[in-house]
Specification:
By secondary structure, this protein is α+β, with helices and mostly antiparallel strands. It has 13 helices and 13 strands. The radius of gyration is 22 Å and the shape is flat. The N and C termini lie far apart (47 Å).
């Protein structure tokens, strides 16, 4: 089969991204892990946490490494079972008949101290008081940030719509707008592009857990009434708010394609922290370094440097220096300065990318301590990030979404 080396500008292609609701098992795990981070960082800003959570029928397992520095943090650790149960309750797993609820599930903890060898690289050798700029990276690795001008949030349109759908599912359930919804759910959005720009909404897939009242009693599958209700109350409002010109009668809808989704959540599928890293970032657009975010304090560059990479990319696009921008940062454990910085504007750059990389290194703080300080990351803000994506969000907690450096970037290029 002969494949052309380049795609003609007028040849449409389709790109797909997915998201999941707060009640998806993997996201339940992410939110519990980040709630633990929040409970500790609120009383011990210098805490070191790397916590994984597993959830399944009637069971929550907390595993990982941490180092606390005061009695209040030790008390928070003693209350970790209540923290986990509170997250599960707030998500909406309150009914024991569906196989998982906050009252009856067992919570097991296997948390132990962080490796002293790792702490040495992060905090400084031989217990010496560290200088802020010399705080080493918590691990080696490569992190990516991405932005493009397809949406107001400077996110790719497929993932922005997918997140909008899962957030709307949760809103419709919690408000009672759609009374038969249960917490678990997924969305998937396919967008057709021509010449690199979105031109139509191709397919919307929505799978949501529900109670028995949503079923057609004759067939035992989701009723036509329920499908129409989801399109009218969930899908259409999200699409018309984000891209009204793309709403049309030619969109293909797959609503609960199997026909039935009563059994769900951790009772239907085991969930583990860190299994939704593409959902958490850009829906498959651009690259990913492989490191998850949830359950980690910001000394871990998997999290903090990824937030800074998004911050850089978003400011580049907001400054109109490119229509799309991907930033790669890499680090070595115990080393403060990044090993490398790479800027890729996918052929849309209006300035020299080599010079842009130099300007970025001068303008943006890139050591772990500088990133933490600049983005104000030593706060209990992380549980909120653990659902509906870490990027493209609004609110004071999402400091990496600010575009206040766009003017400085333009000035650096005499614009």
């Amino acid at each position: 089969m002969n494949v052309p080396a380049t795609r003609p500008d007028d040849f449409p292609h389709v790109f797909t991204s997915e998201s999941v609701t707060k009640g998806h098992p993997d996201k339940v795990a992410d939110q519990i892990s980040d709630a633990l981070v929040d409970s500790l960082i609120a009383v011990d800003p210098e805490v070191r946490v790397a916590c994984e959570t597993l959830v399944t029928t009637g069971l929550v397992v907390l595993a990982g490494e941490l180092t606390v520095h005061n009695k209040r943090a030790e008390t928070a650790l003693l209350n970790v079972e209540d923290t986990a149960r509170g997250v599960i309750r707030d998500i909406g797993y309150t009914d024991p008949t569906i196989g998982f609820d906050y009252r009856s599930c067992a919570v097991l903890r296997t948390l132990h101290s962080q490796s002293a060898d790792i702490a040495l690289g992060v905090d400084g050798a031989a217990g010496r008081k560290k200088k802020a700029k010399k705080q080493g990276a918590g691990d080696q690795g490569l992190m990516f940030g991405f932005a493009c001008d397809e949406t107001k949030a400077l996110m790719p349109l497929p993932i922005q719509l997918a997140h909008g759908l899962t957030a709307r599912l949760t809103e419709a359930r919690e408000s009672g707008l759609v009374k038969w919804l249960r917490p678990d759910g997924k969305s998937q959005v396919s967008v057709a592009y021509r010449g690199g720009r979105p031109v139509s909404l191709h397919t919307v897939v929505l799978a949501t857990q529900h109670d028995e009242t949503a079923l057609d009693p004759r067939k035992g599958t989701l009723s036509d009434r329920a499908r129409k209700e989801l399109i009218a109350k969930v899908v259409r409002p999200v699409v018309e708010a984000e891209c009204p010109d793309l709403w049309n009668r030619r969109i293909t809808f797959h609503i609960n394609p199997t026909g039935r989704f009563v059994i769900g959540g951790p009772h239907g599928d085991t969930g583990v922290t860190g299994r939704k890293i593409i959902v958490d970032t850009y829906g498959g657009r651009g690259s990913h370094g492989g490191g998850a975010f949830s359950g980690k304090d910001p000394s871990k560059v998997d999290r903090s440097a990824s937030y800074m990479a998004r911050h850089i990319a978003k400011n580049v696009v907001a400054a109109k220096l490119a229509a799309a921008c991907e930033v790669q940062l890499s680090y070595a454990i115990g080393i403060a300065e990044p090993i490398s910085i790479l800027i890729d504007c996918e052929g849309t750059a209006k300035v020299d990318e080599g010079r842009l990389a130099t300007v970025i290194r001068d303008l943006f703080p890139l050591t772990p301590a500088e990133i933490i300080d600049d983005l104000n990351l030593l706060r209990p803000i992380y549980q909120e990030t653990a659902h509906d994506g870490h990027f493209g969000r609004t609110g004071r907690n999402f400091t990496w979404e600010r575009t206040h450096r766009a003017r400085e970037l333009r000035k650096a290029f005499g614009l």
